[in-house]
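worker-3 :: picked Acyl-CoA dehydrogenase
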Amino acid sequence: MTTRNWTDARPATAAEWIERAKDVAAVLATDALARDRANSTPYEEVALLKDAGLVTLLGPREHGGAGESWETAYRVVREVARGDGSIGQLLGYHYLWAWAARLVGTTEQIAAVEELYTGNNLFFGGAVNPRDDDLVIADEGDWLVFRGRKSFSTGGKVSDLTVLEGVLEDSGGHVFAIVPSDQQGITFGDDWDNLGQRLTESGSVLVEDVRVPWASAAGYVDKEFRPLTYNTLNVPTIQLVFANFYLGIAQAALQAGLAYTAERTRPWPYGGDNKDSATEEFYVLDAFGDLQAKLWAAEALIDKAGAVLSGLLHAERESLTERQRGEAAVLIAAAKQRIIDTGLEVSSRIFEVTGARATANSVGLDIYWRNLRTHSLHDPVAYKRVEVGRYALLGELPEPTWYT
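worker-3 :: tokens ->
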């Protein structure tokens, strides 16, 4: 990957930041397939995100951040994912964990975390996988001590900070804390070697005697947690991150299919209505028209969800109601199921119109399906359809869980 020095003026508007993300995507796209196959730790890729200013997009302006909205952040994730789905995922997860203090923390904790990561251009990872056993937290007076193992920890070795989540062994209370990634008590397993999203550093992590002051336990005051409905926006926020980088991957797949067809696909000479070019073939035009229309529809739904959720995330935390939260979650569930179905269709059907030669490994059209198929298994999409169905049929809002 050829890195770039961003010497031009810093973006000043949301539209300019989205253009910056497109520039980053163009750099990533030049060798995305080769880097996928090498499956190396993406140090240079994260450095590119930092140099471009995208890491501090949501950070406060007083500390050098862009102070942008989540609506912009979602668009940025989408654009980066068009260049490389893995790096789009890394950036989207970073945005969630960078916002974690706002989701759960006290006013003082929010200020400290945002100054730390924004002022130092730090990158977040997270060791929070609800399907594993919880990390166990011992209360040792003024300190908490985290111990345990997680089978997934997106960000891994490329992160500067890691979000830990565990359960107090005495009370059973859940605690989030932000800790330096590079420390003796955290060992990343280097065991992420999956079908797709290969550069996300999503392997296991071993946590051994990681000490955190009680003052850093997010949302706790005098060892008591102060809950808000706003705390439960973490899952809708990350689920919409998923939808946006799925969309970026699907958009890239369609664009790659269109480009290949225009440049290299040969017309079929035995159809009885032979054409001089594949771009004149009826079945080719029909397929691409169908896929483009479906992708535009998914994009519209995702953008609608982004506008709604961004409004909630940037409102006063105390003002969020359970109904607002629930209706946003339903809309995001609808958006996610649509882009999964559409993205998998796009990334598969492009082979029907590009032709047999497009299956060559040197072409690499398989990367889009592999990336979408891998991460879309994060949680069963059937449950997203059920959430929408219960809302439509019964008027029921989904209860907040680790996946809703």
